[in-house]
Amino acid sequence: MSTQKKSKTGFNELNGRKLTRRKFISKTGTVSFVTMAAPSFMGRSQAEAASREVLTGAHWGVMKAKVEGGRFVEAIPFAKDPLPTSLVEYTPDMVYSQSRIRHPMVRAGFLKEGPKSNSGKRGRDAFVQVSWDKALELVASELKRVRATSGPSAIYAGNPGWKSPGKLHSSSAALARLLNLNGGYTPAMGDYSTGAGQVIMSHVMGNMEVYSQQTAWPVVLKESDLIVMWGSDPMTTLKMGWVLPDHYGYAGLKKLKESGKKVISIDPFLSDSAQYLRADWIAPRPNTDTAILLAVAYTLEKEKLHDEKFLKDYTVGFDRFSEYLKGAEDGQEKTPEWAASISGLSAERIRELARQMSSSRTMIMGGWSIQRADHGEQPYWALVTVAAMLGQIGLPGGGFGFSYHYASGGAPSCNSAVPGGFSGGKSPDNMPEGIPVATNLRRLAPSRREHRL
Fold this sequence. Notes:
Blueprint: E1 13-14, E2 17-18, H1 21-27, H2 44-47, E3 52-58, E4 61-68, E5 71-77, H3 91-95, E6 105-107, H4 108-113, E7 127-129, H5 132-150, E8 156-157, H6 171-181, E9 186-189, H7 197-204, H8 217-223, E10 226-230, H9 234-237, H10 248-259, E11 262-266, H11 272-276, E12 280-282, H12 289-302, H13 308-314, H14 318-325, H15 336-343, H16 347-358, E13 362-366, H17 377-390, E14 399-401, E15 435-436, H18 440-444, H19 448-452
Parallel strand pairs: 8-9, 9-15, 10-11, 10-13, 11-12, 13-14
Antiparallel strand pairs: 1-2, 3-4, 4-5, 6-7
Helix pairs in contact: 7-17, 12-15, 12-16, 12-17, 15-16
């Protein structure tokens, strides 16, 4: 493999300039420090520290990390967390887990032959531990080589997944900053969680909705008569968040249970949420949500339970949708009987659901699960269409939300300034087109089948 001349600090030259830790940070602009940035418990400074408690956090909540002799020995739930999860106490085990990769590792074939190595051995070749200086040398060399031979479009900055939530520890921001300094890259678009929903909602609602402010729990508790949880299990999923969750959503669920309001759970599984809220459980076959929603829409129109004025004033295209429901396009009316044969529900239960939703101030809490499928855009589009037919979007306690099950969805929020953090910086002009995360395996590895043989 070709190598590069090392700087005195042990870092390599990158893009024709020597890159040191100090220079790299200086290039990133001012970085704000926040108290709850997740610190590293593995560093030398921690090992030399006296016993103490450090306020920190992770994807499952805020906590105090008890450190003794430089070792993270106990995670103590934050006193003001209304419902801390049991995941907190396992944090030290994760820090010191044997499954963690503690040192740079390189595929043996690549270490020996560089880019000329047999890529078909990926996944089968042994990995060899190398020093940090060697790892930096390899990465910098490959970034320079690939950019010189194939351009920035050949460098893909994938989604690192569930990174550290700290403002100073964002691996995705650090990766973007590095590759922006190197002249650009092919970025990832979207995410695995809501790959279909965020795309279709941007066209239907003008907002991706999946991460938007939900109608706040105090409003739901005061104004909603019926809660329909469609493919959503917040009692399970609210334990975690992309950043530090405050678990406010659990307080909303607790008050919802105490209120005695009617809750319907539409889910193939009897979820923890359905049991906790004593909900009416409707159990369809998986991935038949769109058929059920179309039959609900058919019933609303057939029985004149839809809000024609709302549809006329605030929507476009209902006339075409109405014709589709009646079978004008494919010769199939989207009746409850039709949906029953697909979903496994009874036609009468589907009609009853439509009537219940139209006779109440209804909040539909849709989950992300129903869009994680082929044609996953369709159930979201159909759900919003049903909400529009009910005419309750914009009314207190009515409409829909796609994030009540995630990261304290439904918590009141504001748009005030927040502390800054480490960012990806400014991208170069003419950046390559991104690749949707949900399709990156197919786009990046068209010859995977050959490698298996």
